């Protein structure tokens, strides 16, 4: 189903110091037209009072379009949530015409009980053999308690998301409307922990297209819950990981030296970037090629795939500067994504300025002119006002996360 392609950013120059390198592990589908898995999609739609008007109208239309584009093997569950959850559709398929009428009856009222929505998503997506389960949380505001007061401690909601992930459910989040009215950091944390995507639909009329794009991505999934085991060799140490392609997602170990990969697509490569420190060559040793990482990919009903990543040492300065331009561009994209994510998590103007400068430099080096210009404009705004515009910041984050899909 997949083969592994390994590429380093550059050779390692002989030195008395350890060196940092990026290894790209590419999962190439061996048969891009192979069978994809059926999908159970559950949408929890915020219908609190703030959704009244254009946002709710656009959300209804978006859900109806999703319903129309289900395949015969797909199922959709839908609930509205405010001060309570109202389960509207339960595992319906595209042939159920009553669903359209049910969606049209949605009304906006009440507060935003995100905790109830997350509970419903877990219940609505029970484990089913051979089926991809994806939850989408759509909201235009901040999470509240039953009295409408904004929640100060969001950790319990993040714990709920971890429970979804542990159950094998992918969680995506949608920020609808102006980002000044919702918590971008929180929604990004939810989707990152849920191994899904964050979507910013600042114009409600764009929600339908964005949800359809997400549906198409989910319908292209060929396998789920892959385990990538990384065993360092010869003194190398792992420093960090991310999924860069088809879209950016930070990764954390689910067990020592093990990554869990969700929603691997059949129609395009999945690229994992690994940051390693490699030791210096011993004094007097001749240039050689040395293995630094054993890699094993396992999944249910899939024979283990193994590979070894070896790095060339050289005493030639010219050879050491022969950079793999593709991997280096991905490395710079990783830096941009780290910066844009961290920008949502800091309120310190000095730290904000540092992150914008780093993002602008990385974007310029990688040829991402539009992103570099956005970072420069936000830096100028910061110097004038001492803060960033929430809409521009969230748009910048979404643009950096799309880099892998542009290749």
Describe the protein in words:
- With 407 residues, the protein is α/β, with parallel strands linked by helices.
- It is built from eleven helices and 18 strands.
- It has helices at 54-68, 98-104, 114-124, 155-166, 184-193, 207-219, 317-320, 325-343, 349-365, 369-385, 390-401; strands at residues 2-8, 12-13, 19-29, 39-46, 75-81, 85-92, 132-139, 170-176, 198-201, 221-223, 226-232, 237-245, 249-250, 258-261, 264-265, 270-278, 289-299, 302-314.
- The strands form four sheets. Strands 6-5-4-7-8-9 form a six-stranded mixed β-sheet, with helices on both faces.
- Helix 8 packs antiparallel against helix 9 (349-365) and helix 9 runs antiparallel to helix 10.
- The radius of gyration is 23 Å and the shape is globular.
- The relative contact order is 0.15.
Outline:
The chain has eleven helices and 18 strands. With 407 residues, it is an alpha/beta fold.
**What is the terminal separation in angstroms?**
21 Å
| Average pLDDT score | 91
Percentage of helical residues?
A: 25-40%
The multimeric state of the shown protein is: single chain
Helix vs. strand class? alpha/beta
> Which radius of gyration do the C-alpha atoms yield?
23 Å
| Shape annotation | globular
Order of helices and strands: EEEEHEEHHEHEHEHEEEEEEEEEHHHHH
Strand content: 25-35%
Low-pLDDT stretches: none
Number of strands: 18
Major sheet: size, sense and barrel closure? 6 strands, mixed
Side-by-side strand order of the widest sheet: 6-5-4-7-8-9
The count of helical stretches stands at 11
């Amino acid at each position: 189903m997949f083969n592994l392609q390994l590429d380093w950013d550059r050779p390692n120059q002989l030195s008395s110091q350890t060196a940092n390198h990026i290894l790209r592990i590419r999962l190439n589908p061996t048969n891009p037209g192979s069978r994809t898995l059926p999908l159970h999609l559950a949408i929890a739609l915020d219908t609190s009072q703030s959704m009244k008007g254009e946002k709710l109208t656009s959300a209804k239309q978006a859900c109806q379009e999703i319903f129309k584009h289900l395949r015969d093997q797909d199922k959709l569950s839908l609930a509205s949530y405010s001060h309570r959850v109202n389960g509207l559709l339960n595992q319906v398929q595209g042939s159920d015409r009553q669903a359209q009428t049910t969606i049209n009856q949605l009304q906006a009222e009440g507060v935003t009980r995100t905790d109830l929505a997350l509970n419903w998503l877990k219940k609505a997506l029970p484990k089913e053999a051979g089926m991809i389960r994806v939850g989408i949380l759509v909201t235009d505001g901040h999470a509240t308690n039953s009295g409408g007061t904004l929640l100060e401690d969001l950790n319990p909601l993040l714990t709920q998301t971890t429970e979804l992930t542990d159950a094998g459910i992918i969680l995506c989040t949608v920020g609808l409307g102006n980002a000044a009215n919702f918590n971008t950091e929180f929604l990004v944390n939810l989707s990152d922990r849920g191994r899904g995507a964050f979507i910013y639909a600042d114009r409600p009329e764009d929600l339908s297209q964005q949800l359809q794009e997400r549906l198409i991505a989910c319908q292209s999934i060929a396998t789920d819950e892959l385990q990538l085991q990384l065993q360092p060799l010869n003194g190398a140490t792992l420093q960090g990981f991310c999924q860069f392609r088809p879209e950016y997602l930070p990764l954390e170990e689910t067990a020592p030296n093990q990554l869990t990969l969700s929603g691997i697509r059949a129609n395009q490569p999945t690229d994992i970037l690994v940051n390693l420190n490699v030791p210096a060559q011993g004094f007097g040793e001749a240039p050689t090629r040395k293995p630094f990482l054993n890699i094993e990919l396992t999944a249910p009903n899939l024979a283990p795939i193994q590979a070894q990543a070896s790095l060339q040492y050289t005493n030639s300065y010219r050879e050491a500067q022969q950079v793999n331009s593709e991997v280096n561009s991905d490395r710079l994209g990783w830096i941009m994504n780290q910066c844009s994510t961290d920008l949502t998590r800091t309120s310190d103007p000095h730290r904000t300025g540092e992150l914008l400068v780093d993002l602008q430099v990385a974007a310029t080096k990688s040829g991402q002119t539009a992103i570099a210009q956005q970072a420069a404009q936000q830096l100028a705004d910061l110097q004038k006002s001492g803060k960033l515009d929430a809409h521009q910041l969230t748009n910048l984050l979404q643009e950096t996360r799309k880099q892998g899909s542009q290749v």
